[in-house]
Specification:
By secondary structure, the chain is mainly alpha-helical. The chain has one domain: Up-down Bundle (Heme Oxygenase, Chain A), CATH 1.20.910. The chain contains eleven helices and no strands.
Length: 252
């Protein structure tokens, strides 16, 4: 595994920077996590699948909020016009006709109560801390760093392409309707990643800013990895679920 801490020390060309950013994803994106491998191999229990959907909802729900903070820091109207599509994708026209609502449908199709999922009260503490750290990063760091942190979307179509066919094949209680959230995501993620990558490459005009972009993407990969770490620890073995977190009997 590479140490990306000083990858841009001597400065990088645009193509070299893009190659490093893609290498971050190849080595650190959460499709490499054991929990994901267990999911795609058909090894997750129904409780683990429910816990994944419930905890991931916290992340889905914060996406338009972090994007709103990015918009607040953007002075360029053209940038804002492009970026606000992300909020529309997740909130829809009325708040409940976009990606968040489709994720909630995924969770309820797995047998979870909608109000319990939306309350986020049964999420793992580590999930809430990770999601909060991501929102804080996008609120308090520079616009450039916040945009760079979104570049995990370059790798989103890959993990969806691994996850969806495996879930449909390996879990008889999961249907195409259950996974309707993922129908639009590859196209949306590719569109958004192309815009963000072009922005980062055009603004990474010093070695320092190039390293900031790399560090921001590493940070975001760490957020996603930590969320699966928490699920793996809590639910793969009995006795590790924290007080107050999801258990099958609490999600109704």
């Amino acid at each position: 595994m590479s140490d990306f801490h000083d990858a841009a020390r001597n400065g990088l060309s645009f193509s070299e920077l893009e190659a490093v950013l893609r290498q971050v994803g190849a080595e650190r994106y959460h499709n490499r996590h054991p929990f994901h491998h267990r999911m795609t191999s058909g090894a997750l229990s129904r409780t683990e699948m429910q816990a994944w959907a419930l905890n991931r909802y916290c992340y889905q729900a914060v996406i338009p909020r972090k994007d709103a903070m990015i918009l607040a820091n953007a002075e360029d109207p053209a940038f804002r016009a492009a970026w606000r599509k992300r909020i529309e994708d997740h909130d829809g026209e009325d708040g409940w006709s976009g990606g968040i609502a489709r994720w909630l449908h995924l969770a309820t199709s797995l047998g979870l109560d909608a109000d319990a999922v939306k309350s986020e009260r049964l999420a793992l503490p580590a999930t809430r801390f990770a999601v909060g750290a991501y929102l804080s990063f996008c609120t308090n760091r520079t616009l450039f760093e916040a945009v760079a942190s979104s570049l995990t979307e370059m790798f989103s179509p890959l993990i969806i392409g691994e996850r969806v066919p495996a879930m449909l094949a390996k879990y008889d209680y999961i249907t195409e309707d259950t996974l309707a959230y993922f129908t639009r995501r590859p196209e949306q993620a590719s569109r958004d990643a192309d815009f963000a990558l072009a922005y980062v490459l055009s603004h990474a005009d010093t070695a320092e800013r190039q390293q900031q972009a790399i560090d921001a993407l590493v940070f975001k990969c760490d957020i996603l990895w930590a969320m699966l770490d928490a699920l793996q620890h809590a639910y793969a073995e009995p006795g590790n679920i924290p007080p107050g977190a999801f258990r099958p009997e609490t999600a109704r």
